[in-house]
Amino acid sequence: MLRSRWTHTLLVAATGLALASCGASDAPRTKGGPIVTNRLTEGQYRQSIADIFGADIRVLGSFEPEVRASGLLAIGSAAGTITPSGFEQYEGRARAIAEQVVDEKHRQATVACQPSSPDKADPVCATQFIGKFGRLLFRHPLAPSELQNWVGAAGDAATASHSFYTGLKFALAGMLTSPKFLFRQETVEPVSGSQTRRLDAFSIATRLSFFLWNTTPDDELLTAAANGELHSKRGLARQVDRMLASSRMEAGVRAFFSDFLEFDAFDTFVKDPIIYPKFTQRVADDAKEQTLRTITDLLIERHGDYRDLFTTRHTFMTRTLGMVYDVPVTSAKGWEPFEFSHDDPREGLLSQVSFVALHAHPGRSSPTLRGKAVRELLLCQHVPAPPANVNFTVVQDTSNPQYKTARARVTAHRTDAICAGCHKIMDPIGLALENFDGLGQLRTQENGVDIDASGELDGVAFKDAAGLGTALHDNPAVSTCLVDSVYRYAAGRAANRDETEWVRWLNERFVANGYRLPELLRAVATSEALFSIAPDVGPKP
To answer: Which of 274-282's residues contact partners 24+ apart within 8 Å by CB, and which partners?
Structure first.
């Protein structure tokens, strides 16, 4: 598939060595940050297995809940541990994967060599198999002693079971439960002729790959690391441009926005079936997918302005979602492009089911939850948790004859001085979305009373959801939040004080480049800041 209009531009720029984003002279220097050790997320685990062994290898079983820190699972994964029960799950999953990889259906593709006998050990063939897949699983070549240990384990199992392939299966299952696979372990090295240190080439390849593709480095990237290419500006830029032009980049963008928008909440997403009979698990799945398709279409395929996500009327629709939106959908199955008319109140991501339904209660809408989500997810602003003794009775009582609309109820709730401060920064935002009920269905009244969807964001007043989208589009905090989140996602940690000027410069570049996501990704991926290690941080090689 033709990737998009920006791909050619990037590659031409790289050929001409127009590396404005790579170590640009005007970029502030940083001392670097600490090394990080991140546990693979469920998505990274699944995608790595598919890319290494084939998309038809099934990954079975459940994963332990992931930890969110500083707003991102990508950062929380650095604090993630594996419990005894979690390790049992990894072991069972590893055995099932290894069984498939070497079974009769797959071994012709996965085991390139033929053993001298299928009934006994063959260290030559085992070395070829383990060397190939160990390099991809561990994201670096195996040391001779390490390779020998795994080949020995395969040989012992083959001898005991009288099966060469059982031996491979045993060794592969062991590699799949190794910390070197389950955790992204980084290594630092000294920079020749200076007192500074940096990530080694294979750690750089790993950061790049999980940042841009959400999966393990491919063979070409590992080869570039082995050849020292990633330690040169030219070589690094060449690999980054190749990765941005790859079809895998879409999966990386989807992974970032799934994390950024906290779409893991869909794992526990429920609605009251009595109040919302149209809700099904298919609606939840399609709502998430609709937003991700809207994002990748605008930002990747059409190389659009990030801010336009909040004002676009172009999206994609299934017949299942069409029933919730109450719009005609011609395709009986699958997705089709869809454009909301200009007289429709739906405009931008905030009016999609994935946002208004996710940030609502199981049986009712919530201006407060929606306003809080805008503040925290899209503007990167912290909203304090409510005091433990807050009385929510008025807000929760949707049948109250005195307060028939959400606006009336939250206004009454704000008369409590304890609550007023926080609600003041949330409710005026969320009230603009009150024309959408708790499932995201359009409505003009609540309990027979016309809904007033006017609101305000940082001094900008609007009358409806479309006005909120425009206010967000024009709010500079929107781009600042995205830039900061992209960098933190790439580094797997929060930015430190020393990096403040660098992140500010990065945002200026983002604005100057027309708020284009690919250019932002390239600026981060080719920066010295992403791979520099602060002095005296982390173990020395």
So the answer is: 275/363, 275/364, 275/438, 276/363, 276/437, 276/438, 276/439, 276/441, 278/323, 278/324, 278/439, 278/441, 279/439, 280/320, 282/320
**How do beta strands 532-533 and 197-199 pair?**
antiparallel
| Rounded-to-integer distance, Cα 4 and Cα 463, Å | 36
- With 70 as the cut, is the pLDDT of residue 9 above it? no
What pairs with residue 338 in β-bridges? 315
Strand partners, 77: none
Instruction: Reduce the secondary structure of 405-471 to three states and give it as a string.
Output: CHHHHHHHHCCCHHHHHHHHHHHHHHHHHCCECCCCCECCEECCEECCCCEEECCEEECCHHHHHHH
Count of CB atoms situated within 10 Å of the CB of 178: 16
Find out whether 313 and 288 touch, Cβ atoms under 8 Å.
Answer: no
Q: How confident is the model at residue 297 (pLDDT cuts 50, 70, 90)?
A: very high
> Tokens in use for 471?
């206010």
* pLDDT tens digits, 125-140: 999 999 999 999 999 9
Phi/psi at 505 (5° precision) = -60, -40
From residue 102, give the alpha-carbon distance in Å to each of 54, 283, 538: 12, 38, 38
Separation between Cα atoms, residue 411 and residue 384, nearest integer Å: 19
Cα–Cα separations (whole angstroms), residue 303 to 128, 256, 309: 43, 17, 12
Distance CA 207, CA 198 (A): 13
Q: Is 497 helix (H, G, I), strand (E, B) or coil?
A: helix
**CA dihedral over 22, 24, 27, 29, signed as positive or negative:** positive
Considering only CA atoms, which of 402, 522, 412, 537 is closest in space to residue 6?
Answer: 522
Cβ neighbours for 503, distance < 8 A, ≥ 6 positions apart: 483, 484, 487, 495
* The pLDDT of residue 511 is above 90: yes
Taking the CA of residue 188 as centre, how many other CA atoms within 13 Å lie in the half-sphere pointing to its CB? 22
Task: Tell if the pTM clears 0.70, that is, is over it.
Answer: yes
Q: Classify 21 as helix, strand or coil.
A: coil
Measured between alpha carbons, how far is 394 from 400 in angstroms, rounded to an integer? 8
The enclosing H or E element of 304 equals none
